[in-house]
Amino acid sequence: MRLEAEINTVGTNLWRGVRDAPLYLHSYSDGCFLNGALHWIVHDTENCFESMHCFEFGKERFQPFPGPSQFYRILGQLRVDTMKMGVLKDHLFISHNPTDDMVDIWVMKDYAVQDSWTKDFVIETPWVVKPYRGEIYQPLMVLINGDILMQFALSFLVSYSMRDRSIRKVRVKGIRSVIRAITYIPSFVSIKNAAIGRHS
């Protein structure tokens, strides 16, 4: 069995095959984009952390990417369904819920440098927003005041204060139930023009 991948240039009808795609990409994650590449966690047949991979759009190829060295020391023990990957302040991060009442956030300070992974945050979650079994917290962004905005499962948003280590629910007007939050940077450049290099 192998994973097949194809890539398309926006504005064309041509799809190109891409070789060497890793077989077991973390299905709970869409991958995260940074420095011209998409990044994923790769798991083994038991759904445990095995490695990381990225896809470089400029070179149109998959290749291994360095994950936290601490993770490689305990291969076969860290389940990927307790992990999320994303970008905080232009740095890759991996959040890991080692227990139901704790979130560890590992941040890669220097891109593609394995030794630069550091555990920057250890967040204890109070009972008021305790995860249900199998559900985890996903950091989304660092707010202007330094708080960390996180999403819990598909249920609600929470804000974690770095000053007093408190956590509170964030209510969004008009949304009562299931949500899926993503972060984005506004841009007036069209995707099509950016893809073919016509923007200035």
Main traits of this protein?
200 residues, mainly beta, 4-stranded antiparallel sheet, 2 helices, 5% helix, 40% strand
Description:
The protein has 200 residues and is mostly beta strands. The protein has 2 helices and 14 strands; from the N terminus they run E-E-E-E-E-E-H-E-E-E-E-E-E-E-E-H. The protein has helices at residues 69-72, 191-196; strands at 5-8, 15-18, 32-34, 37-43, 49-56, 61-65, 83-88, 91-99, 102-108, 117-124, 137-142, 148-152, 156-160, 167-170. A 4-stranded antiparallel sheet has the order 3-4-5-6, with no helix packed on it. The longest helix has 6 residues, at 191-196. The radius of gyration is 18 Å and the shape is globular. InterPro entries: F-box-assoc_dom_typ1 (IPR006527), F-box-assoc_interact_dom (IPR017451). Residues 4-191 form the F-box associated beta-propeller type domain. It comes from Rhododendron griersonianum.
Low-confidence stretches at least 5 residues in length (pLDDT < 50)?
none
Query: Tell me, what's the shape?
Result: globular
Mean pLDDT: 84
**Biggest beta sheet attributes:** 4 strands, antiparallel
Structural class: mainly beta
The order of strands across the largest sheet is 3-4-5-6
Q: Helical proportion?
A: under 10%
Rounded to the nearest angstrom, the distance between the terminal CA atoms is 44 Å
Secondary-structure element order, as H and E? EEEEEEHEEEEEEEEH
Protein name: F-box associated beta-propeller type 1 domain-containing protein
Domain F-box associated beta-propeller type: 4-191
InterPro entries: F-box-assoc_dom_typ1, F-box-assoc_interact_dom
